[in-house]
Specification:
The protein is mainly alpha-helical and 308 residues long. It is 67% helix and 8% strand. Helix 4 runs antiparallel to helix 7. It is elongated and about 95 Å long.
């Protein structure tokens, strides 16, 4: 529970199990909703495995222990940029899967619904609910001390799955109870109706993650980070008599990229290299949040062209 990669491995294992159960129970019960749940889980398992690979690459390269020479030479800037790609792809696939399931549900509803083996469907929904609630709590608790975007998205995925299982369970129990009653005509419509309702809830949920991932991929500057960097740089300009500065800031997944260029007077006081390094250290400490995920470049020059 203390490692991002360890939590993701546990999540992948349980996701694969639930995906297989979803497909098997869906075919046995004749429920498109359960089959969708299985496909949804399988998609999530594949993307979580990819997220695990990216997390491992980022952690290894940030710690300076990356030993595969060819990859190290080809990715000298690190692997942070892969994280928003994975998050964006994951969210997009989940949205597309939900839209497709929604179309399937509408088509089924218009053609008379689906007849189910409600007993089998209830068993699956109960198993799913127990596993998914347990995993949502496990991932959320583990991520309190880790603070990972990948784990946050994974935890949200388990919460979404648990919400769907609650809906499945309630609907299947209702369908089972109306058998042999005057309301039995409603039972074929329970599966497509619940599937459509869940899809309408699921579709908007990954949108915020996809939006943020797209912002990271496009290197959109975070306003709060840029404001903090500007405040620190402006203070250093006044303290050391620089003419001006240029700041370039971006967030790429968990990485923070900051490039600062200070324009010094052409005929200013000479300083030893150790003194320039001391100024860099002071700027770095003022910026705060020093970690392996921060890429900080500080340049001093008398030529403004170098800062463009």
């Amino acid at each position: 529970m203390h490692s991002e990669q360890g939590v993701l491995r546990v999540s992948i294992a349980f996701t694969v199990v639930m995906a297989v159960l979803g497909v098997v129970f869906g075919l046995m019960s004749g429920s498109a909703a359960i089959i969708f749940d299985g496909v949804y889980e399988l998609t999530d398992a594949v993307m979580t495995a990819l997220a695990l690979l990216v997390a491992k690459l980022i952690a290894t390269s940030s710690a300076g222990g990356f030993s595969q020479k060819k990859l190290a030479e080809r990715f000298t800037m690190g692997f942070w940029h892969l994280e928003p790609m994975v998050l964006g792809l994951n969210g997009t696939l989940l949205i597309v899967a939900a839209i497709y399931a929604l179309i399937t549900a509408v088509e089924s509803f218009l053609t008379g619904g689906r007849h189910l083996a409600f007993g089998i469907a209830i068993v699956y929904a109960a198993i799913s609910l127990v596993v998914e609630v347990s995993m949502a709590l496990y991932v959320s608790r583990a991520n309190r001390g880790i603070g990972s975007d990948l784990l946050a998205l994974d935890g949200k995925g388990w919460q979404m799955s648990a919400a769907m299982s609650v809906a499945w369970f309630a609907a299947f129990v209702a369908g089972y109870l109306v058998q042999g009653t005057p309301y039995a005509w409603m039972s074929p419509y329970i599966d497509p109706t619940m599937l459509a309702a869940v899809c309408l809830i699921v579709i908007p949920m990954p949108v915020a993650t996809v939006r943020r991932a797209l912002a990271d991929i496009l290197l959109v500057t975070p306003s709060d980070l840029k404001r903090h960097v500007d405040d620190v740089a402006q203070a250093m300009v006044g303290r050391y008599g620089f003419l001006s500065y240029r700041a370039y800031v971006a967030r790429v997944g968990r990485g923070r990229q900051i490039e600062l260029f200070f324009i010094a007077p052409a005929n200013g006081d000479a300083r030893r290299l150790e003194e320039w390094d001391q100024i860099r250290n002071e700027i770095g400490e003022a910026l705060g949040e020093e970690s392996p995920d921060r890429w900080l470049t500080i340049v001093f020059t008398t030529d403004p062209e170098w800062a463009v």
